[in-house]
Amino acid sequence: MTESEVESMIAQMSQKFLPISLKNLKRLGIDKISIEVMHQLKEEFTGIFEKSKNLGEGTLKLANWLIKAHSFFPKTVRSIKNWFGEIVGYFEMRKLI
Question: pTM higher than 0.70 for the full model?
Answer without folding.
Answer: no
